[in-house]
Amino acid sequence: MRTPPLLVLLGTGALALVAVGPARSADPASKAREGMVARHDLEIVDCLLPPQVRQLGNTSYLAARRPTRTTASDCRIRGGEYVAYDRADLKSALRIWMDAANAGDVEAMTNVGEIYERGLGGTPNYEAAAIWYQKAADKGYSRALFNLGTLYEQGQGVDKDPVKALNLYRQAWGLPADNLMFESAARKQQEALRAELDQALAEKDQQVTVLRKQLERAEAELKKKPAQATAPSASSAEVETLRKMVEQLETEKMAVKARLATVAQTRAPGAASALPPLDPKAMARVARGLDFGRYYALVIGNQNYSALESLKTPRADVERIARVLKEKYGFTVQVLEDVDDVAVLRALNEFNRVLKPNDNLLVYYAGHGYRLQSSAGTFGFWLPVNADPPPTDTFWIPNEQITGHLGRIEARRVLVVADSCYAGLLSTEPSFLFLDNGAQYSIDYVKFKLPKRSRLLLTSGGDEPVLDTGGGGYSVFARAFADVLEENSDLMPSPALFAKVQARVKTAAANAKFKEVPEFKSIKGAGHEVGDFFFVPLAFGKT
Is the pTM of this model over 0.90? Predict the structure, then answer.
């Protein structure tokens, strides 16, 4: 019989998870790293592979090193080299450990963090310590995870966050995220923090109300007194003091509200943390003598956000669209609802293992989107459910990472359908050039396009917000997209789908006094080769 882990609250504010039960033979640090998937493992990086040893006659030589774009974990497995962190802003470092830390040694990184935390013989630099602990923690290093947790627990160098501290301690001990004891403790900490902030907000409101009444009385008394040309009266000074106090309390109220909005949230007990499995044996679609390959779909609906305003329709949208794709078009569908950044990137990476050169992949995303502007340009993001409010973009998924995964996937035909704000930023290509809306797509057109590689993007709007509702329980875009697919009975290329969807969305949005214009583009940087994506109903070719 297994004994569940026990949460122990230590004295002097220390907070830790301690495993109770059968003795473990593995070291906690190695156990914490074993099998864990971190966000950075799934990031697409520019990887420089080691040189190949080649033989020419009796002579051996090293070929040139080979660049490739792949995930960070794959690069490490293959012995490649990539830049893991930008260290340009580090002004000084310890001579003994810094070179090894900069080279990615997790123990060296943790040592640097500990020296910064001790203070280098002077004042501790908790902010720098947190940075270095985070770098090693991202690699699953147990000691760094624990040290970083202590900073979050005490609010040193980072915002105080007991829930995040618990999660870091959990990882340091190698406990699973769905461990019931951890979930219970995390929710307890979250509820306590929310209660504390709610109480603080109520107290601020009460204080503001009392001070405003005092201010109103003081201002009324001041108006009754004759104006004095010399020094201000005591009543005038009192009024000025009260005004400043009210302003200060209003500022404090805003700070409490902002902190309340960013309190981390955890999954409810029993919520699935693993991805649904992919079926690698899906049947290829053959119609009218043409091999269209196998059809897969990744359908993502993010509705209930931890720190952002939740949406109303994504889950209903993706459930209907997944059903249509599966039942009418024979897609093998994987549905992800309310998922974090790691789950999204992990799912994309899993398709790289399953998809073959003649396959098709449709990625549908419904959820929050955002853009950031800088001197380098405008950048778009998908926001997972663990996303923080802007400008904190730690867990946001940049469009370039999505593009990187799509470029790496072997499937010949890929279509991304994005129903989110600023979705058009996923591609910087001009609008896709396609045949006239009323054109007939001949068999010659299909034969020409089918063998060509395609990376296409259909969005609910361009570089602008879009409607979350307006489609009778669905978003305007999702309603139009699903309706067109359900009504179709013929082989339909993606430009034809776009033309019909765009017309319906523009009309429905206009009826709601809103401008929303879907866009259709190729995805720059993902390897598009003038191909197309074809929707082939199961009944097509059988009559």
Answer: no
